[in-house]
Amino acid sequence: MNQQDHDKRSLDLHIEVMRRTESDPSLWELATSILDRWLTRTSPYSRPDLEQWRRILDGRDVQSVIADDERGRQLRQSSPLSCVLPYRERWDFLKAWKRTNSST
Fold it and tell me: Where are the domains of the chain?
């Protein structure tokens, strides 16, 4: 899978998570608890992006989560939202995405 596929898959996963937050707002709180754990273990190098995630989660800033630009792609590489789906649902999403989108 090339970098464009990785970026597209990450964007699509985040769009799916944002869709789910509409019916289950507790996903925002779950992402915040994940972020809190990460912040206790992070290196100074990672801290600025994680602090940006704090602001995004606190403001429930959907547009930053799904921004299809360089900053959005960079932020999604350290996203606590990518961890909020239950394992089975995330796995099913990734398999379905690969079947329909991957250029490999």
Answer: 3-101
Of 1-5, 34-38, 51-55, 67-71, which gets the smallest average pLDDT?
A: 1-5
Burial 48-73 (b: 16+ CB within 10 A, else e): ebbebbeebbeeeeeebbebeeeebb
Q: pLDDT value at position 74?
A: 93
pLDDT of residue 46: 87
Alpha carbon distances (Å) from 2 to 6, 7, 9, 14, 72: 6, 9, 11, 19, 18
DSSP state of 85: S
DSSP-derived secondary structure letter, 69: S
Tell me the whole-structure pTM to 2 decimals: 0.90
